[in-house]
From TrEMBL:
GO terms for cellular component: mitochondrial nucleoid; nucleus. Residues 126-164, 244-287 are annotated as: Disordered. It comes from the Eukaryota. The keyword Magnesium does not apply. Residues 1-21 form the signal peptide. SMART domains: HMG. InterPro entries: HMG_box_dom, HMG_box_dom_sf, HMGB. GO terms for molecular function: DNA binding. PROSITE patterns: HMG_BOX_2. It comes from Oreochromis niloticus. This is Transcription factor A, mitochondrial.
Amino acid sequence: MAPYLLTAGVSLLAKSFSVLSCTGSLARCTSVLPSAFFSPVKCLTSEARSPPKRPLNGYMRYVQQQKPIVARQNPEIKAVDLIKTIAQQWRSMSPEQKQPFQEASLRAREQFKVDLERYQAQLTPAQLQQQAQEKRQRRAKRKAIRKKRELTNLGKPKRPRSPFNIFMSEHFEEAKGITSQAKMKSLLEDWRNLFSHQKKVYTQLAEDDKIRYKNEMKSWEDHMVEIGREDLIREQTLSIKKRAAKAKKVTKKAKTVKKATGTSKPSKKTTKSRSAKTVSPPSTKKT
């Protein structure tokens, strides 16, 4: 047993000496090689740092300051009521009380401009172009959301539903699956397995919904014309209205011109009597 322990100890000691010699050689190599070889993260990351965040305005700075204070004073207050309370406090403050928050916002805005210029200076043309495209997409998305909200507030009718949408709304509660996505997948499979006469019921309901949408849209667009919001009317409706108005205008103009000149088409009886008077039979004199 003793020779075995002696042999194991010698081998362990030899391994430790080999490790120490390797680390010593590595240390000697690091003293010769430049430091860039031992900072691969800094050397290989060519991506620009994240863009600076936009600064908060004076009101939002006040909200951030007052949130923990109001929440501590009212532990059971809801988040919506908390914001309402802080907003009421801000409205009741004097300009002198608001001034520190607004000045801090101005200073942060100036610093943001400097940081943004510094950030954009290190971007490549491709990255700048990508940022501009993303900015346009975000602006278009915000514009679409605002327009949809405005149309909802103005009472625009909901679009007609498809046969499958009507089927899904009727059977969504008892559909298989836990998540909404799983339920929709199950309902889609059930819809595909329906017979044609079963689908016909939902197809007829969808056709009725189209008629409902058409009538409601006509009334809504007429109301939009009355309140001066022609910009919200569909293009096809505008083109139909323009053609009708143009035809009406042309007809009215033609009637005015005809009345001014006093020319009108003679009736059939008048033309027949005139032709009978002008054309006389040849005279037959006896010699």
